[in-house]
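look at this:
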Amino acid sequence: MAGRSWKFNDNISTDEISPGRYVGLRSNLPELAKHTLEDARKEFPLEVKEGDFVVAGKNFGMGSSREQAPLVIKMCGVRAVLAQSFARIFYRNAINIGMPAIICDTARISEGDILELDLSNSKVVDKTKNFELTFPRMSKTMEAILNEGGLLAYVEKYGDLLLA
C-alpha cells in the first residue's frame, strides 16, 4: 500500500504528538486522535489519510512515556513512522501496538512524496522520486509482533509457546 509522506523535524515530543491539554481524553482515544500532531502541523489530523506515513528526523517521540502517542498516530491511519532515530520508549510502544517504527535516513524524502513500505525486504520505496531506502532488518520476534498487529495479539496467539 502506498501513502503520502508528512514531513516533521527533529525532536518531535510526545506532547506534540498527543497534546497534554487533552489529557482528559485519554479514555476516549478516537476523540484524542482528532488532535494528533496538531501542535506540530495544524492540518495533520484533518488531512491525514489511511496509509500515509509520518517522516521525521532525529529523536522522534522524545519526552514522556505517553503510551497513547503511537496509538493515536496509528488511529489516524498512518501506515508507519519513519525517522532517523526514535526515543526508545516511543519506539517500543509503537511496535507493541503493531505500528512499524522504521529507523532510516529520511533526508531525501520530501513532504508529499508517495511512499511504499516493504517490511519483509527492509526497504522503503519513494515512488515520487524513484529511489529506495533500506533499513536494518528487525528481529524475527519484532516482525512477528508487527505481523500479528501488536504485542497483545502476538501473546494471545503464541502465549503458550512462550512459556515452553
